[in-house]
Amino acid sequence: MVGVCVGIHLLQQGRSVVLMDRNEAGEETSYGNAGLLQQEAVRPYEFPRDLSVILPAALNLRLDVRYHLTALPKLMLPLWSYFRNCSPRRYESIAQEYGHIINMTLACHQELISAAGAEQLIRKVGWITLYRTAKGRNKGHRELDAYARQGVNFKVLNGDELADMEPAIKGHHAGGVHWQDPWIAGHPGKLVKAYTRLFKQLGGEFVQGDATSLERSNRQSWQLRDHQGNTFEANETVIALGPWSAEITNRFGYRPPMFFKRGYHMHYQYPAGQPRLTRAVQDSEKGYMMTPMDAGLRICTGAELGLRDTPSTPVQINRAEAIARALIPLGDRLDAEPWRGARPCIPDMKPIIGPLPGVPGLWCAFGHGHQGFTMGPATGKLLAAMMTGQATEIEMSGFQANRFVHT
Ligand SMILES: Cc1cc2nc3c(=O)[nH]c(=O)nc-3n(C[C@H](O)[C@H](O)[C@H](O)COP(=O)(O)OP(=O)(O)OC[C@H]3O[C@@H](n4cnc5c(N)ncnc54)[C@H](O)[C@@H]3O)c2cc1C
């Protein structure tokens, strides 16, 4: 999502752009997510500070977050920094910056959706946080004031209103919150592919190749090779490889403190003759998300803290499935194996957007963590403005790569 959107915005600024991916576009993290365009996500995903959350998480007893013990040595530093950035004072200031970029997102998506003729891929219905118990509801409601202060629209639902809005949910629950502004992509990968077609219509060239072939060909220019061995030269290169971005930046001396919150999904058949969810629903006290997608209901898991490439341990998806089966009508599994991806997370919760320090002509657009599917077009617009020397819509100093360079 991020790379394609950067490409489109650079073309719109009159640049000539080649987009290289080792596969087709929209087949990795931007395919496997929960499909939410999250205009409500002005407050980034926080490291919990409440012992009633931290202790069961430390014992690996929670569904929303688990960790691999063997990954802890590599995770300790970024997690410590993440924890410190979630002190109330720091978190509030980060949430204000994060809110500025999130507030741009739907308008930026709408521009691309209209230009790409992709309206049919989007449902503008919002999504719901479900509270099973009064305790969970009261805890959730305590956070709503902060969202209201940041201009987020929502409607608090009692149990009856929740049941009326989503008849597929079995039983009576304490209530919910309907986040009214977000949109759902019924097939996230198809939205990225629609944007990729737009990129090509605007004159962009899409090629398949390995970005690790990037080299400086002379003082001014950069060179990449596609899978056929063709070479492409450019004065500037943007690194937008999501969870793989640091593989390139490390080679040029820039080591962003990226860590991974792995996540899983599985699709399920809609049982014939039974009600379906019409919106995405987060079963908040359990800790997983259900999104009604075109291909079936997609259950997505929370965070698995681990290394990006170690084998799948789909404990969370199996447990979420068992819980969801008691909550809504859920048919057979549709995928042979759970899909796994990695949210590319930065300890201060903000993406890295801007020039790569000390290496002229290299730019960064990665680290979008929980909301890269939402933020892609806004990132594209902001980075294209920076690269072409124009004023950006929001202040970018807090998103620059040099915040992790210590002299
Ligand atoms: C379970 C889960 C649920 C999520 N739900 C949401 C959600 O509802 N809303 C939301 O906004 N965000 C969500 N996210 C986060 C979001 O999916 C990511 O932040 C976003 O997709 C990152 O986009 P990206 O373009 O940076 O990375 P990617 O989509 O991963 O794209 C990176 C691209 O780089 C290519 N690449 C990698 N290495 C190379 C190489 N060496 N050479 C060439 N190409 C290469 C890959 O093929 C890929 O196409 C979720 C994430 C997960 C895991």
UniProtKB/TrEMBL annotation:
A Pfam family matched in the record: DAO
Q: Which InterPro entries match?
A: FAD-dep_OxRdtase, FAD/NAD-bd_sf
Keyword rRNA processing listed? The answer is: no
**FAD dependent oxidoreductase domain segment(s):** 1-386
GO CC term (a single one):
cytoplasm
The record's keywords, sorted A to Z, are:
Oxidoreductase
Write down the superkingdom of origin.
Answer: Bacteria
Cite a single GO MF annotation. oxidoreductase activity
EC number annotated for this UniProt entry: 1.4.99.1
Q: What is this protein called?
A: Glycine/D-amino acid oxidase (Deaminating)
Organism per entry: Gynuella sunshinyii YC6258
